[in-house]
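--- STAGE predict ---
source: upstream dedup step, 1 unique chain passed
mode: sequence only
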Amino acid sequence: MRKAKILWIEGNRAEELAYIPALRKKGYTVSIVSTGQAALVSLSQESIDLVVINAAALRTSGKRICQDIHAHRAGLPVVLIVNPTHTPRIIDKKRDACAQSVLSLPFTVRKLINRITPLLPTDEFRTGSSAVIRVGVIQMDPGNRRVRCENKESRLTPRLARLLTTLMNHPGEVIEREQLFREVWRTEYMEDTRTLDVHISWLRQAIEEKPRSPRFLKTIRGVGYRLDV
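--- STAGE serialize ---
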């Protein structure tokens, strides 16, 4: 099995940080770039499993870079490093639905590894596995969080995988937004509806050939969503 590959966006000399050698010692392959634009180039050329944005070193909130990355690769896990002293308004993942994890300086190497490990793939997608869920042309391996729809294959974040699993368990049925919040976010809090909308958008980018004109994942206005297969 190939090593999980991390793309690290760092404004300073990342080689001098303790985090990079520690990640490599753990067995991860780490590529380092210094700008968001360079990161997009790397994503086009390499198979990246996770992105770390050191917004503190870049002296930015990191939100724009995060949004650009998700526009380029929907569902790609992002870990954001911020300095609360220099960045008063850090990204709130529940409000902005951007980074999967936010780390405020200072933090230990162990804490970083604990945050990124659940976001990394455990294996390659196995279409022959008995664990794969198949609904119409959509196939998903929940354990490895990989989905294949026709000729498109993507790796999902844990939350996107739970969202798709819920939809695949009820093909052709309208699932109310409240039910999705309960099953996927495991909460009764319904005020932050934009979070669900953004995750649906990311899921469409993962499975739809034309995400803005979805064939499979339909919006039922005022009610919820339906997976048509």
